[in-house]
Amino acid sequence: MDRVRTGLELLVSAPKAGRRRVGLVTNPTGVLPDLTAAAPALLAAGVPVTTVFGPEHGLRGTAQAGGGEGDTVDPVTGLPVLDTYQRTGGELDALVASSGVDALVFDVCDVGARFYTYVWTMYDLMGSAARLGLPFTVLDRPNPIGGAVAEGPVLDPAFASFVGRAPLPVRHGLTPGEIALSVNRSLGCELEVVPMEGWRREWHFDRTGLPWVMPSANMPTPDTALVYPGTGLLEGVNAAEGRGTTRPFELVGAPYADGRFAAALNDLGLPGVRFRDTWFTPTFGRHAGVVVRGAQLHVTDRAAFLPVLTGVSVLHVLRALYPDDFACEPFLDLLWGSASLREHLEAGRDPRGLCPPPGPPRGELLYD
Questions:
Q1: Taking the model in full, what pTM does it have?
Q2: pLDDT tens by residue, 103-114
Q3: CATH number of the domain at 7-207, out of 3.40.50.720, 3.40.50.1440, 3.40.50.300, 3.40.50.12170?
Q4: pLDDT of 256-275, one tens digit each?
Q5: How far, in Å, are 52, 95, 136, 263, 268 from residue 58 at the CA level?
């Protein structure tokens, strides 16, 4: 099997001189192929990392969604770790300035969905770098669900938030480095991307030859990442997205669902997926401790599978079968990037037409 060489591996093999104090933005996914973490790997290569910055879930990945680990010290390197979560604008600028770093380096794996927050931490820190006059380097990593297809609507800027700062589709098909190059047109920081070697756009993560490290507490496998751009939308309605189970985002349902749910989803004939009627009890999160009837997604053909269309179809079936119980929440607008999905569901209209046909990703593409 061919193996991808990440930006981190390439930088470690040929470190650049001249930077005095480097701030490293990373989490458990920032590793070499031998699983050496980014901070000790860069220090061993002579890169003068002096501060580590943690995104949502933290440097160690211990925090659940919507949380960070706070400011602490990395027990491996002894470096200070500063928590960037929920810090933006002037507050984030002050945090970076207080660290005394001369440059920022970003090494975090994304999962290919616009509402996953790591690339927006990157975006916010690029803004800080521009305002503070610091160079910003992205050590690129694969998009684990492939980079050949983009799917779903582009974000309406009126709905920009930490689950989407810039106009990308829901499944964007880009790498972190490509997103950085695309958004830097408006940010204007001194940006460098260290591209990968050997990655092909059509590859899913199992083709990369790299070790999978959980990007966050509820993203245990590449299978989770594949369905997440669709079933992650359930976080904006009163249904269960599978958090608190061993198959988050692959198990979906609601306490008010019944055996018609999985059958109706299968009747839609969605490409590349089948649904199995099942029950589950989340141990935390929404509907914790409650028996939920629902369905497990079984992806049968990942090349044909359309996660965004599938997720919208799940919401459509929940609304159609259980109109008196199903309810949308304001967060759905931020996940979708506009009010259109919520408005269709609340009006009882079929929202599947809101999904444009899938196509190639758009932006500053680095790879064939």
A1: 0.96
A2: 999 999 999 999
A3: 3.40.50.12170
A4: 999 999 999 999 999 999 99
A5: 11, 16, 20, 40, 40
